[in-house]
Amino acid sequence: MLFYSLKSQGFAGPAMASLTVRQLDEKLKKQLRLRAARNGRSVEDEVRTILRGAASDTDAFPAPTESEPPGIAPAAKTDAKQVLLVIGGGIAAYKSLDLIRRLRERGVAVRVVMTDAAQKFITPLSVGALAGEHPFLDLFDAKSEFDVGHIRLARDTDLVVVAPATADLMAKLANGHADDLASAVLLATDQKILLAPAMNPQMWANKATRRNLAQLVADGVAIVGPNSGEMAESGEAGLGRMAEPLEIVAAAGALLVHASGALAGVRMLVTSGPTHEPIDPVRYIANRSSGKQGHAIAEAAARAGAAVTLISGPVNVPDPPGVTVVKVESARDMLAAVETALPADVAIFAAAVADWRTAASSREKIKKTGKGTPDLALVENPDILATVAHRKAKRPKLVIGFAAETEHVVEHARQKLARKACDWILANDVSPETGIMGGDSNTIHLVTRNGVEHWPPQSKSQVAAALIQRIAATLGGQK
Length: 479
Ligand code: C5P
Prior knowledge:
It is a single chain. By secondary structure, this protein is of the alpha/beta class. The chain has two domains: about 80-260, Rossmann fold; about 265-355 and about 380-479, CoaB-like (Rossmann fold). It has 17 helices and 21 strands. It has an eight-stranded mixed beta sheet with strand order 12-11-8-13-16-17-19-20, sandwiched between helices. It has a five-stranded parallel beta sheet with strand order 2-1-3-4-5, with helices on both faces. The model is unreliable at about 1-15 and about 65-80 (pLDDT under 50).
């Protein structure tokens, strides 16, 4: 049964009603199912993600209020954010007109570059009317080179958004081409780039596009969408529709907020979730970690402006917005991903890494032979936290571990702090009666070399916020 209760997700208020997905109209349900399938989530999780996104969007990047009616806002205030919007040549370009409008409604100044192909779909006149200034069209336009120049165009902005990002524009950016104004600007910018890909599903699935996408993600380019649904070509459907303007606005808003948060410029690495240690191709050793605490920390850090890499074991919680997520299975994969993600200023090890793995995992499924049980000899996994904390080179300034204990919580955490050479340990009691493992709240004892602080019981996102505040204060004090 599809059922999703707002109350159960902490949105409860005295007059808060429950919402049943069944009550939604068929079209919306279909869209939700498509979105959920595309993101590998249950419909309930998808709804939760959308609500969270909407709630956080309201905080981070508010839409106009009643006193500030929707419509084309006057040109940006002096402290307003500036977005450089690159419009590529695809049918989705018509949605970019709405995107300009939505950004400007929120007080963001929008400057536009259009590719030649974009001008086949929408006109510079429409773009200029909505943006409040003429779009830039030509790399060799003497007038605009004199006025602004492509280098200034690329730099005098807080964010570059490419919508629609065509397969061709993605290929150019991934390979460093600069043979027109759009690609030259993308190569010259020192600001964050957000791509909203839009193309036919076959083009999106093509190996070349996959390679380019992987390269762009590795280069730190942010991506929103594409969504699943019908294409402009009749009878074509699948993954490739450009994200809706408001989804792009939300993603842009998160990136713009990052630039001014308490952890702006801080590189942070977070591990989260359990690890799965294979016994054979179908069986594994695991634990009950949900990843909720680690993911909440990554999300809070990103909100505070940190550039966050989250290395996650297999979990059922959604990827936090604005975070680079690396998905791994085993402890050894996690260690390799952590080492690749260094250097970082802060590393937080919230993953419940399996202490042991089988000495040899079988390539084939182990069969019952009737001659007794298989020999599952165990060997110890690498200790990722201790390995990083003991590093001479590339040791993060602040290495933070967790200690999940069922007895002598603080005493064991103190021993871990010393043995693993980390700076702080957040200790918690994970005895089944506490409900912490897999639950939504946590009671933390922060153990540092200077002593112990006992934090009150609070939600995992409150723990995350408190930790991030603490880290920002500590890094601020070290400057
Ligand atoms: O499992 P243990 O209680 O020792 O975990 C304490 C801390 O060490 C946690 O922060 C956990 O993420 C980290 N750890 C790790 N690699 C391991 C075991 C634990 O990074 N193999």
